[in-house]
């Protein structure tokens, strides 16, 4: 009886469908918050700040659940360094900065700018990088 040999070491575990939906869904939510912040910065219409707050709340929920899945995948991975660890840490930093951005948006609407816009730009860039890293195939061997 022979045991199967893999083409290369398994460094991580592919995200499952629900994990991928949560991670991919957080990108447009953070992007929508950024666009709402930019619209508020340009127009000074307070409703744009409210839109950004709600979009950030949804993005934090999605990315928080994706962070939980990333932690589980990191704990299940054979090699807990490299790409699985980088993905988890990037998602953690994104989630923490998103939470700080939520706190910034919880202030009075006039106090949101310019800190809210700057944080939204940073968090949007981070979630795009994190989603790209997390959704690409994360197994060893030929790709």
Question: In a nutshell, what does this entry contain?
Answer:
This protein has about 140 residues and is an all-alpha fold.
Keywords:
single chain, 143 residues, mainly alpha, 71% helix, 0% strand
Q: Topology of this structure?
A:
Blueprint: H1 17-43, H2 46-76, H3 83-105, H4 115-135
What's the helix count? 4
Biggest pleated sheet: none
Radius of gyration: 18 Å
What percent strand?
under 5%
Low-confidence residue ranges: 5-12, 138-143
Number of domains: 1
Could you give the count of β-strands? 0
* Protein structure class: mainly alpha
User: Which range best describes the helical content: under 10%, 10-25%, 25-40%, 40-55%, 55-70% or over 70%?
Assistant: over 70%
Mean pLDDT: 86
How would you sum up the global shape?
Answer: elongated
How do the SSEs run, as a string of H and E?
A: HHHH
Question: What's the N-to-C terminus distance?
Answer: 29 Å
């Amino acid at each position: 009886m022979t045991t199967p040999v893999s083409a290369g070491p398994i460094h991580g575990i592919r995200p499952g469908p629900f994990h991928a939906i949560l991670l991919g869904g957080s990108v447009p939510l953070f992007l929508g918050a950024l666009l709402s912040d930019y619209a508020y910065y340009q127009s000074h219409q307070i409703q744009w700040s409210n839109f950004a707050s709600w979009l950030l709340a949804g993005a934090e929920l999605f990315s928080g659940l994706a962070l939980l899945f990333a932690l589980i995948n990191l704990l299940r991975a054979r090699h807990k360094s490299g790409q699985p660890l980088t993905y988890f840490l990037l998602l953690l930093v994104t989630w923490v900065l998103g939470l700080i951005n939520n706190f910034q948006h919880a202030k009075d609407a006039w106090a949101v700018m310019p800190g809210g816009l700057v944080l939204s730009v940073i968090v949007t860039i981070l979630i795009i990088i994190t989603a790209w890293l997390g959704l690409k195939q994360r197994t060893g061997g030929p790709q």
